[in-house]
Amino acid sequence: MNEFALIKQYFHQQSTPDKGVILDKGDDCALLSPPIHQSLAVTTDTLVSGRHFLPEIDPFALGHRVLATNLSDLAAMGANPKWFNLALTLPNFDADWLKAFSQGLFNLASQFQCHLIGGDTTKGPLSITISAFGEVEASKALTRCAAQVGDDIYVSGTIGDAAAGLAAYTDKNFAAQRIVSEQSVMFLKQRFDLPQPRVSLGKKLLGIANAALDISDGLVADLNHICQRSELNAVIHCESLPLAQHHKDAVGFEQALVNALSGGDDYELCFTAPKAQRQTIKNIANDLHLPLTLIGEMLECAEGPQPTCSVLNKGRVQNLAKHGFQHF
Amino acid sequence: MNEFALIKQYFHQQSTPDKGVILDKGDDCALLSPPIHQSLAVTTDTLVSGRHFLPEIDPFALGHRVLATNLSDLAAMGANPKWFNLALTLPNFDADWLKAFSQGLFNLASQFQCHLIGGDTTKGPLSITISAFGEVEASKALTRCAAQVGDDIYVSGTIGDAAAGLAAYTDKNFAAQRIVSEQSVMFLKQRFDLPQPRVSLGKKLLGIANAALDISDGLVADLNHICQRSELNAVIHCESLPLAQHHKDAVGFEQALVNALSGGDDYELCFTAPKAQRQTIKNIANDLHLPLTLIGEMLECAEGPQPTCSVLNKGRVQNLAKHGFQHF
Fold first, then answer.
1. To which CATH superfamily is domain B152-317 assigned?
2. Which chain A residues are closer than 8 Å to B31 by Cβ?
3. Edge to edge, what strands does the sheet with A292-299 contain?
4. d(CA B157, CA B159)
5. Which CATH number does A3-138 carry?
6. Which of B23, B39, B83 shows the shortest C-beta gap to A31?
7. Chain B residues with CB-CB distance to A131 below 8 A
8. pLDDT tens track for A237-265
9. Helix A59-77 to helix A95-111 angle, to the nearest 10 degrees?
10. What are the recorded Gene Ontology BP terms (chains A, B) (predicted)?
11. Nearest 5°: phi and psi at A3?
């Protein structure tokens, strides 16, 4: 089967007309009618087999994940997803694989009315690059550089679950030291396999939050980007971190804390907001049925040292390099 | 060196401010201010090592080529290049390689004031995906589906050179049967290494040409896309094909013809235009110092058979399957 037949069979299925698309798949370019009073938010993520996912990954989960990582970047700007393109490099043609992959992809895309507008398929080591496009009012967009002194720091959902889910797949000693229920394992694997981009939250935070990003590399590593771009320090409290019960049951409190601080792949949002917004943020959490947990505060940074994120454990600074926090 | 330092060192160098970019590299997304009365043309191309380029390729040429293939798609729509993003998967960190690659990339980008707005760097088998963004008036954009009965068919520049250039790199028997000057070999290799996207031509053809595409898979294969999308037949004349003297000198007339009909990677434009535009097209060729050669005509297609492109050689239909045209 050649490239054109392949594209047609698996990737033309989602052809809901979209007013903003003048011309899509099948020409040299897609032609889009961009929003008039909004900016276009553009993001790109590549997932490489063996690096970002296990070669034996369920293709449905892979299709979901590669779009989810991009939609999560849009969510972190408060942008409304509109379109995406897909560059798919495949080692061979496997109809079952392509069917499941495209189902995972379009299942998530249709949740957000996000339309595939084009791309490229090539032969080579399995790798996928998606660029996603959203719209947002530029003056309200949630950047990394606008955190303010005294801002509360929040995270959405529970964190560290995906790191434990990955360990459940790859670590032979997972659950060696305790009895772990099947439900807990399933919960953690699903949190790794099918991350939920927090698009609705991002949109609701426009005009409320000062800075935001999505947690893909680990809470402390990612929060450090807000620190550096905003030129402020951050302090977060271990006791406040939202840990899922299944997570603590499966790996114990200590390891769950390590996962929450340094585990990637959760795709929850971390954001900062003025203290005056606390009630509004509680209301948003209620509306979305999504926990939004206050975990720390942005602080002034003296001239000289690099702005940084500190972790307090029962009031004492946690030295992350010791105590097995070796991910940093 | 981590991802952020790597990006900063090699890819922040081109920081000419662009009024349309509100926020670029370093946040979750780039924020673009799209053109108000124009459409946004979007294209994506992936190049995989060993598939689209030789692993030992000069990294400067690779940087040029990967952007050129995308700009060529924009040119084929008549779009004006504005921005691009870059997803770069590298097996290891090689400072010299990255320096040369980024120079090839930015050298071409700056020719067209096309700005890097973001991307992703990952570890894995060498592969590069670029998405490029341009602006064009939607009603005038050059598509594949708007060719008309009686349209002239043109190609820009000379064609088949890149296929001969690739052979000069890879085919041990290249030049075994004839004396080939060093100049000819250099000309052909350069045509393969450094394809020139025909951006100025594409823009000048707006309102003049009816249909267009760029030749990446070979003239006949690509022209077939115009036939199928426009539901018309095409006939082209071997005698008319523009062959470079160096090309004929190096491989002989017969092989040059094969290369011109079926060799890819030229990134010249193929377009159709009403006969009434002949003088205008001559003027464009003069203005751009770029040959634009009339090679055939679009014809009605009876219902039933697939629309197709026929090749006439001295008035007789060339059966491409015979006579060594084995590329089809």
1. PurM-like C-terminal domain (3.90.650.10)
2. 39-42, 77, 136, 138, 141
3. A211-214, A269-273, A152-156, A292-299, A233-237, A309-313, A316-317
4. 7
5. 3.30.1330.10
6. B39
7. 44, 85, 131
8. 999 999 999 999 999 999 999 999 999 89
9. 30
10. thiamine biosynthetic process; thiamine diphosphate biosynthetic process
11. -55, -40
Cβ contact (<8 Å) for B44 and A119? yes
Task: Please give the C-alpha separations between residue A327 and each of A138, A216, A224, in angstroms, as whole numbers.
Answer: 35, 14, 14
- Backbone torsions φ then ψ of A286, nearest 5 degrees: -65, -45
CB atoms A124 and B49 under 8 Å: yes
Q: Are B233 and B259 in contact (CB under 8 A)?
A: no
Interface test with A, best of B11, B18, B23, B29 (most A CBs within 10 A): B29
Nearest to B279 by CA among B289, B296, B294, B268: B294
What is the pLDDT at residue A166? 93
Q: A42–B122: do the CB atoms touch at under 8 Å?
A: no
Measured between CA atoms, the residue of chain B closest to residue A133 is: B29
Amino acid at A148: Q
What would the pLDDT profile of A28-37 be if each residue is shown by its tens digit? 898 888 777 8
The secondary structure of B34-58 as a DSSP string is --SSSEEEEEEEEEEBTTTB-TT--
Neighbouring-strand partners of residue A269: A214
3-state secondary structure A295-319: EEEEECCCCCCCCCEEEEECCEECC
- Where are the strands (E) in chain B, listed by range? 21-23, 30-32, 39-48, 80-90, 115-123, 127-136, 152-156, 211-214, 233-237, 269-273, 292-299, 309-313, 316-317
pLDDT (0 to 100) of residue B248:
96
| Cα dihedral value B206, B211, B217, B221, nearest 10 | -170
- pLDDT tens digits along A150-171: 999 999 999 999 999 999 998 8
Please report where in the chains the tokens 């951006």 appear, as a residue.
B199
Banded model confidence at residue A27, pLDDT cuts 50, 70, 90 = confident
Domain ranges of chain A: 3-138, 152-317
Other CB atoms within 10 A of residue B191 CB: 28
Q: What is d(CA A28, CA B144) in angstroms, rounded to the nearest whole number?
A: 8
| Helix, strand, coil percentages for chain A (3-state, nearest 5) | 35, 25, 40
Indicate the residue type of A224. N
Cα A277–chain centre separation: 24
ipTM: 0.85
Contact state of A141 with B45 under an 8 Å Cβ cutoff: no
Known binding-site residues of A for ATP equal: 119-120, 144, 216
Band of the pLDDT at A58, cuts 50, 70, 90?
Answer: very high
Closest B-chain CA to A72: B28
* Residue A322, pLDDT score: 38
Distance from CA of B98 to the nearest CA of A (A): 18
CB contacts, 8 Å: B49 with chain A: 124
**CATH number of the domain at B3-140, please?**
3.30.1330.10
Q: For strand A152-156 and strand A115-123, is the pairing parallel, antiparallel, or unpaired?
A: unpaired
pLDDT at residue B316 in the model: 87
